[in-house]
Design a protein that fits this description.
Two copies of one chain form a homodimer. With 149 residues, chain A is α+β, with helices and mostly antiparallel strands. Chain A is built from four helices and five strands, in the order E-H-H-H-H-E-E-E-E. The first copy, chain A, has a five-stranded antiparallel beta sheet, covered by helices on one side. Chain A is elongated. Chain A starts with 11 loop residues before the first strand and ends in a 6-residue tail after the last strand. The interface between A and B is large, with 35 and 36 residues. Strand 2 of chain A pairs antiparallel with strand 2 of chain B, so a sheet runs across the interface.
């Protein structure tokens, strides 16, 4: 198990592989983001995108899945306060295969609770052409190995 | 249909009602955010949360659904570049009923394409006790009614 004390600023990791199907794009969008360019191929072809594209929240959720499997499962993670600078940089379309790269940007011990630490992590989601399709800075919380550091 | 030209800084709107069930919390989390405090009631009771809580990405996706139904469906929306200051302020638990409040913070015409405008919108998701559970600033794009303004 990895704790706050085991993470260093500058640590990077690359992991994951997730193929995004047309069926999943439409299923997610019909439930959570029913805009025509996410749910309807014909409407999407007449939109500014020109083709069916995944909801940005779907792309984020897929990267979260990869993050949990690739990192958080082996960490004493305590959830996140939020995310800064979430950006959808390129469309995600059916058949794209996503992977994730993370980099620890900052870490500090909580002033109110010395048993936890804050870790800010840049996440980049990339497609099979190594193009960044999404990025964000996660504001995570993680347990300390010992309160004395 | 509402265009860039119809939106004013300071415009506010409140809308939506979405009951978050335990089944949906677990279903979303098993697929996209399989951390124990999102997927397993027993594990959640031993976590810092003390009970099963929705994935933050699930809460965001539910608010997106309300946003599409309450606003975007009647707008010439062209998607979003991203989101700033996404914050999960309180846990969302089974039985919570979410609604949404939006406020237009800023608007400006695109310099590269006078047919589109940028609109920054604060979104707050609230529970049935009127407590803010999530907030973000959406960086949206929307068509102009006419390029001459």
């Amino acid at each position: 198990m990895q704790y706050y004390d085991d993470l260093e600023i500058g640590d990077t990791k690359e992991f994951g592989e997730y193929e995004v199907t047309k069926a999943e794009i439409v299923e997610f969008a019909e439930r959570y983001d029913p805009q025509p360019f996410h749910t309807d191929e014909d409407a999407a072809s007449e939109s500014a995108f020109g083709e069916l594209v995944a909801s940005g929240w779907h792309t984020a959720s897929i990267c979260m899945r990869l993050l949990v499997e690739g990192t958080l499962e082996e960490q004493a993670a305590m959830g996140a306060r939020g995310v800064d600078e979430l950006r959808w940089k390129r469309p995600v379309t059916p058949g794209d295969v996503l992977s994730v790269r993370t980099e620890v940007l900052d870490k500090r011990v909580s002033e109110s609770d010395p048993r936890r630490g804050y870790v800010d992590t840049l996440l980049e989601g990339r497609n099979q052409h190594d193009e960044v399709v999404i990025s964000w800075i996660g504001l995570g919380m993680i347990e300390r190995r010992s309160p004395d550091g």
